[in-house]
């Protein structure tokens, strides 16, 4: 349910307002007015209209939806690529707001906030020890650009509170979770959404990787639920030669529109692997579908979500919005990858769970492909399929070997994250002194048995009873997570992924393919069906 709600595929950057009003519209309006005027009890007219709109859209397709004004703001923020606030990342540990990092060059760093500071008051209001939620912290710290907020913090080894007057500013939301060199000539980029700023973010990290002389690239789109159509086209354009079709859209009231690759992209010649999974949707599927159809790179992972519908945002007078499906999009070979939704929204929303239950996440043979939806790639005439997501060229099963009830409880309650945060709080200076850079940390830092004993004790505080048998199964993965969380809080998200990806089956498969490109190009891209 949550995944489906997050899938956001918008045609333009800005919404427009259109109000065709015919006899049926007048009919609906008159019914609402009559209810308001004559009904036996009082009614909330606004709520009645919103409910009616919601029910009408439910009858259309799973992605036509109604958003309140508040939901529009919440949805737009990550796609617009910025918000207005003070520029910190934080967590709540022991009912206290704990500063993980201050954005470089942002208002908080300029004011002097440091990692490890505990925020006790905001504008004189106590925020510690009152059960404050993450959303409540966001509401207090965010505000209009130019407005000021006074943050009172407790800093380690300083006996008194320190007040910081911070002027809020535009804070960028980066759509790149990680970028780094995997080997001397293999680069890795993880993109979490297709937002307005994604191409700027991509071009920046790609320039850095190019300076490092990489000629093989892994683009990780796993878990990427989509975003703007134009951004997906622009990213695909970086990998595909000019004048080649990236996709086309078409609907009853939307004539066919083709989108072609334009200028020379910054990675049209290197070897390319795209990572996808069941969380890769819409814009992610546009990129991977175009790469696959032109035999431009190798798609690795599991079948993608299967969203091939295009929504147009239509703004209503009260700043609420309808996102109406206006077209379908098709990959260059003509595939429609939208999965069926004729069994209703409940069945549609549970489809990913059904894949897991049917064994699709662990065995590619569990996937049933329909011959009538068979298509051919445009260069090498390989068989590909429409009708429910992008099938990878190289299937990688989901690793559930470390899943246990005990591990799932630790993750669900955030115990491992809080444990790592608490450890950093106590040992930050010592860690930075012992490991002056990430390479030293990556090579020499070890999560030994004392860590695990302390984590178990930490779990007791969260109400999680020790399970020795389960812990033994999950121990190696837990060790890696602890090391990665500490690295993330000492440096950035790139260091986190560099550690967890050492054992990630999809990433390691991509590395294997790129190291043996001729072999896999022959067996996958040049394979004649």
Q: How is this structure best summarized?
A:
It contains 19 helices and 23 strands. The protein has 529 residues and is an alpha+beta fold. Strands 4, 5, 6, 7, 8 and 9 form a six-stranded antiparallel sheet that branches.
CATH architectural category of the largest domain: Alpha-Beta Complex
Write down how many β-strands occur, each being a DSSP E stretch of 2 or more residues.
23
- Secondary-structure content class: alpha+beta
Instruction: Quote the beta fraction.
Output: 15-25%
Write up what this structure looks like.
- The chain is an alpha+beta fold and 529 residues long.
- It has four domains: 76 residues, no CATH class; 91 residues, PDZ domain (Pdz3 Domain, Roll), CATH 2.30.42; 220 residues, 2-enoyl-CoA Hydratase, Chain A, domain 1 (Alpha-Beta Complex); 102 residues, no CATH class.
- It contains 19 helices and 23 strands.
Describe the secondary structure blueprint for this structure.
Blueprint: H1 2-6, E1 9-10, H2 23-38, H3 45-58, E2 65-67, H4 69-80, E3 82-85, E4 88-93, E5 96-102, H5 107-111, E6 118-122, E7 125-126, H6 134-141, E8 148-154, E9 162-167, E10 169-172, E11 176-183, E12 186-191, H7 198-211, E13 216-220, E14 227-228, H8 229-237, E15 245-251, E16 254-260, E17 271-276, H9 283-293, E18 298-301, E19 309-315, E20 321-330, H10 345-349, H11 351-357, E21 374-376, E22 383-385, E23 394-395, H12 405-412, H13 415-434, H14 438-444, H15 449-461, H16 468-490, H17 493-500, H18 505-515, H19 517-525
Parallel strand pairs: 1-14, 12-13, 13-17, 17-18, 18-23
Antiparallel strand pairs: 2-20, 3-10, 4-5, 5-6, 6-7, 6-8, 8-9, 11-12, 15-16, 15-20, 19-20, 21-22
Helix pairs in contact: 8-9, 13-16, 16-17, 18-19
């Amino acid at each position: 349910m949550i995944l489906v709600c997050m899938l956001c595929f918008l045609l333009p950057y800005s919404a427009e307002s259109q109000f065709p009003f015919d006899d049926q519209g007048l009919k609906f309006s008159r019914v609402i007015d009559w209810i308001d005027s004559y009904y036996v009890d009082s009614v909330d007219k606004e709520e009645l209209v919103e409910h009616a709109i919601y029910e009408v859209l439910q009858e259309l397709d799973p992605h036509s939806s109604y958003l309140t004004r508040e939901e529009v703001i919440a949805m737009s923020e990550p796609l617009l690529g910025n918000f207005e606030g003070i520029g910190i990342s934080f967590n709540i540990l022991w009912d206290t707001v704990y500063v993980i990092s201050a954005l470089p060059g942002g208002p908080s760093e300029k004011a002097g906030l440091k990692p490890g500071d505990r925020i006790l008051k905001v504008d004189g209001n106590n925020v510690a020890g009152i059960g404050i939620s993450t959303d409540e912290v966001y509401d207090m710290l965010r505000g209009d650009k130019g407005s000021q907020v006074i943050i009172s913090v407790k800093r380690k080894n300083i006996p008194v509170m320190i007040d910081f007057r911070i002027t809020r500013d535009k804070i960028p939301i980066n759509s790149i979770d990680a970028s780094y060199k995997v080997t001397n000539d293999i680069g890795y980029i993880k993109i979490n959404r297709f937002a307005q700023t994604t191409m700027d973010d991509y071009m920046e990290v790609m320039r850095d990787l190019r300076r490092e002389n990489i000629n093989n690239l892994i683009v990780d789109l796993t878990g990427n639920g989509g975003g703007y159509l134009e951004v997906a086209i622009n990213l695909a354009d970086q990998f595909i030669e000019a004048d080649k079709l990236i996709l086309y859209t078409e609907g009853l009231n939307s004539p066919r529109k083709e989108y072609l690759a334009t200028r020379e992209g910054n990675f049209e010649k290197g070897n390319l692997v795209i990572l996808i999974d069941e969380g890769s949707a819409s814009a992610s599927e546009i990129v991977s579908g175009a790469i696959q159809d032109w035999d431009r790179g190798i798609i690795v992972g599991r079948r993608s979500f299967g969203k091939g519908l295009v929504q147009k945002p239509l703004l209503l007078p009260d700043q609420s919005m309808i996102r109406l499906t206006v077209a379908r999009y098709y990959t260059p070979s003509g595939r429609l990858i939208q999965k069926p939704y004729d069994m209703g929204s409940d069945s549609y929303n549970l489809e990913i769970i059904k894949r897991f239950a049917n064994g699709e996440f662990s065995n590619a043979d569990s996937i049933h492909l329909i011959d009538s939806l068979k298509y051919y790639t445009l260069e090498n005439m390989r068989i590909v399929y429409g009708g429910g997501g992008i099938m990878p060229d190289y299937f990688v099963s989901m690793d559930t070997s470390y899943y246990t009830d005990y591990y799932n409880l630790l993750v669900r309650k955030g115990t491992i994250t809080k444990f790592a945060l608490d450890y950093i709080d106590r040992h930050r200076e010592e860690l930075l002194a012992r490991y002056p850079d990430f390479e030293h940390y990556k090579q020499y830092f070890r999560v030994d048995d004392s860590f695990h004993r302390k984590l178990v004790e930490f779990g007791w505080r969260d109400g999680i009873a020790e399970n020795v048998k389960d812990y033994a199964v999950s121990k190696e993965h837990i060790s890696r997570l602890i090391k990665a969380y500490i690295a993330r809080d000492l440096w950035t998200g790139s260091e986190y992924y560099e550690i967890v990806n050492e054992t990630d089956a999809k990433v390691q498969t991509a590395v294997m393919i790129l190291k043996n490109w001729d072999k896999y190009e022959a067996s996958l891209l040049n394979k004649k069906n």
